[in-house]
Design brief:
Strand 1 and strand 2 form a beta hairpin. By secondary structure, this protein is mainly alpha-helical. The longest helix has 29 residues. It contains eleven helices and two strands, in the order H-H-H-H-H-H-H-H-E-E-H-H-H.
Length: 277
């Protein structure tokens, strides 16, 4: 992928991020009153270590799922803008796939489907299809970060489009294959899906391999910056998962702190590596 094509993709992401934030803002006053009822209809508590440890003392707060949705979209818009500003003239394969990881957060805006379903009495098929798109984006984001680590560890920079398409195909297979109950959600207003344990193990395996690839890059290229990038990738994914499953005020701020810190480590160190080239 050429530098201009990559920059155009970043511009598209920035514009889509603005559009998503505007859409959510316009709908906010109509959606927010519905969140208490939606949370009360949740069939189970959202997964996560924080919920497991504090679930007895802190009950789900309806507004949290709305706040985390907005935070995810805002994170994507701001981070894509920063990446464009600092890497506009830098051709780095890792940045392309890191940007795709960040771009996937914009799709969290799809979570407005649940309140819209209640507000407009939409057929259940709409909410099921929308969350398949959301799961596709989440899988694609993880696969993009994994691909960035492969480029860092020595894969040739040619034919980046092919690896984007491979990531799209893999995410599509996962999103299409998992069963989703379109009328059942947890306390973070994520749809309940089948094979959740297996998918979580796959995600853990992918991020561990991603970290290992960055560490290999540090050894093979003699650049300690990739050690920090590997650690940053772990922090970013940890914060991402905490943010997506938040249902109390305990988790959004720590989740955002981990996500932003991990992303900053990755971007700053990649910039440092390529400034020497």
């Amino acid at each position: 992928m050429t530098l201009s094509s990559r920059n155009n993709l970043l511009k598209v992401g920035i514009v889509v991020g603005i559009a998503a934030l505007v859409m959510i803002s316009v709908l906010a006053f109509r959606m927010l009153p519905l969140y208490p009822d939606l949370t009360a209809m949740a069939i189970k508590r959202a997964p996560g270590l924080i919920q497991l440890l504090t679930g007895r003392f802190f009950k789900p707060v309806p507004a949290v799922s709305f706040v985390t949705m907005v935070a995810a979209v805002a994170y994507a818009f701001i981070t894509l803008s920063v990446i464009y500003y600092f890497f506009e003239k830098t051709l780095a394969a890792e940045i392309l796939f890191l940007a795709l990881f960040v771009f996937s957060f914009i799709f969290e805006g799809i979570r407005v489907t649940a309140p819209l379903w209640m507000l407009y009495e939409l057929p259940g098929i709409y909410i099921t299809l929308s969350f398949r798109v959301l799961f596709f984006a989440r899988f694609f984001g993880i696969f993009s970060l994994f691909t960035a680590s492969l480029y860092a560890s020595g894969m040739e920079m040619r034919r980046q489009e092919n690896f984007v398409l491979i990531g799209v195909a893999a995410a599509f297979v996962f999103a299409l294959g998992i069963p989703i109950d379109g009328l059942s959600w947890d306390s973070s207003l994520n749809m309940v899906s089948g094979y959740s344990t297996m998918l979580k193990l796959v995600e853990i395996g992918v991020i561990l391999i991603t970290m290992a690839s960055f560490f290999i890059a540090a050894y093979s290229r003699g650049s300690r910056e990739y050690l920090i990038i590997g650690g940053g990738s772990f922090l970013a994914v940890l914060g991402r998962n905490m943010l997506f499953s938040s249902d109390t005020w305990l988790t959004p701020l720590p989740a955002l702190a981990l996500l932003v810190t991990g992303t900053w480590f990755m971007c700053a160190q990649i910039r440092k590596v390529y400034l020497w080239l």
